[in-house]
Amino acid sequence: MKDYSLKSGERYPTLDLNLIGGDHLWRYNYAASRVDANARLFGADVFCGSGYGAALLAQKTNAMILAIDGSAEAIEVATRKLPDPNIIFAAKLFPFELPENTFDFITSMESIEHVKDYETFMWMLVKALKKGGSLFISMPNENVMPYTGYIWHYKHFVSSEIRELADRHGLEQVNAFSTSSAAYGDDGKTCLFYPYQMNNDKPFDLESGDTLFFEFKKK
């Protein structure tokens, strides 16, 4: 059984941005920079964890955000500590439905690896986007962080898998990067994590970092 408590190790338990990995913040800041802040848009953050990313998006854009996570505890804390009228927090375990053709953009950071039926998860995200809407999605890079039965994940991905999955569901790639939250051994594989390491708040070439990050647009 999965542990959905806030401090299970699957999500940051803090809302203090000084204690959030720079790579995590960079991905949300990038998504916010790609959203038209002059428009009244509707976005979703799936899965939002403790809610710091949804709060960052709401602060930096003019968008309403639906923030969903499988941890009822995380959602309760976020609702209480982040009383932003532009954010709707909801606790839901996948599979669940999102309204079709509704969202101008969706962020889903390091979530797809937590879903056994990841193809249905991607289909659900794309179906919920409006035509021309943007999907910002990240996942562990199998080539740098090989899956070895990591207790919270079902699999890690190579970039070609994500591109093929996106293409099948009517997405076109806009940008692709990687980010890093770890130090690497001589073989280029992840060997040691530094959750709050300095100088990890920047993108790398797609295949260099431990986390793949894509910006897609719905055709």
Features:
single chain, 219 residues, alpha/beta, 7-stranded mixed β-sheet, 5 helices, globular
Summarize the topology.
Layout: H1 22-33, E1 42-46, H2 52-60, E2 64-69, H3 72-81, E3 87-91, E4 103-109, H4 118-128, E5 129-140, H5 159-168, E6 171-179, E7 182-184, E8 190-193, E9 211-218
Parallel strand pairs: 1-2, 1-4, 2-3, 4-5
Antiparallel strand pairs: 5-9, 6-9, 7-8
Helix pairs in contact: 1-2
Describe this structure in words.
- Helix content is 24%, strand content 27%.
- It is built from five helices and nine strands.
- The strands form two sheets. Strands 3-2-1-4-5-9-6 form a seven-stranded mixed beta sheet, sandwiched between helices. The chain has a two-stranded antiparallel ribbon with strand order 7-8.
- The longest helix is centred in the N-terminal third of the chain and has 12 residues, at 22-33.
- The N and C termini lie far apart (38 Å).
